[in-house]
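Researcher: Structure prediction, please.
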Amino acid sequence: MDLPLRQRPIGVFDSGFGGLSVLREIHRLLPNEQLIYVGDAGHAPYGDKTREAISARSFAVSEFLVSQQAKAIVVACNTATSAAATALRQHFRTLPIIAMEPAIKPAATQSRAGVVGVLATRSTTTGDNFRQLVERFSSAATILVQPCPGLVELVEKGELNSPQTRELLDRYVQPLLAQGADTLVMGCTHYPFLMPLLAELCGSDIQLIDPAPAVARELQRRLAEAHLLRPDSDRGELSFWSSGSLSHVQSILPGLWPDPLPAAHLHYWPG
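Model: Predicted structure follows.
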C-alpha cells in the first residue's frame, strides 16, 4: 500500500555500522521520522573495492530503499559518496539524496593553529571530490590527510577501545599532532565511534569534528523545502537491515546504539 508522501520513511545506508553515527544525529534532530537503515555488511568493506563495485552496491541498496517507499536517501558513507553520489542523483532525479562531505571547511575556519588533520579511508582520500575539497580550503589552513586502513574493520568488530584499536589510532594521530594539528576531522562515518578514545589520546585541546550533525541539518532543510517533514504529532520508528550475518549485527549493535533496534536480514538484493 502506498503511504502518503510525508509518512514515508527516510532511507540511510552504509557498508556496515559506521552510518549509525549519522542515523543517530538524524534521529536526534528528526525524532518524528520513520528511519530505515541498511548496513551492506555482506559486501563490506567498501574501501577495498573498485569504484564500479561500490557504485553497483550503492545503486542496489538505493533500489531496495526505494522499494520500501523511501522519501529521501542519505548516503552515510564517505566512500560510497565519492564513488556513487553524483550518479545516484542523476538516476533518482525526484528523490532528495543527501551525501557525506568531510567537514574540512568548518575545520579550516575553526582551527586556531591553522593546521587541520583529516582521518579517512584510503579510498576516500584518492577520490576526485575529496582532493578538490582539500585544494579549495588549503589557502585557509594546512590540511594534513591521514589514510587509516584497519580502523573500519575494528569498529565493525565492536572494538572501540581495544589495545589494537588504541595502538592503531595512536599511530595515525601522533604524526598529525606532531605537525601542529589542533583540529581533527572524522572523514569516515565509522570514526565518530572512536571519538571518546581519540579525546583520551589527543587531550582536551584538540578539537574533533564529526560531519554527521551537518548532514542531519541538510536533510531537515531538504525535507522542509519539499514539504516532506512528518507531522510533529507522530513518533518515528527505526529499523535496521543487514546483508551480512544477523547474529553478528545482534552481538555488535548494542555497543553502538543505546536502545533496542529491530534488525532484519536483507536476504538478497542484486548489484
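Model: The chain has eleven helices and ten strands.
Researcher: Thanks, that helps.
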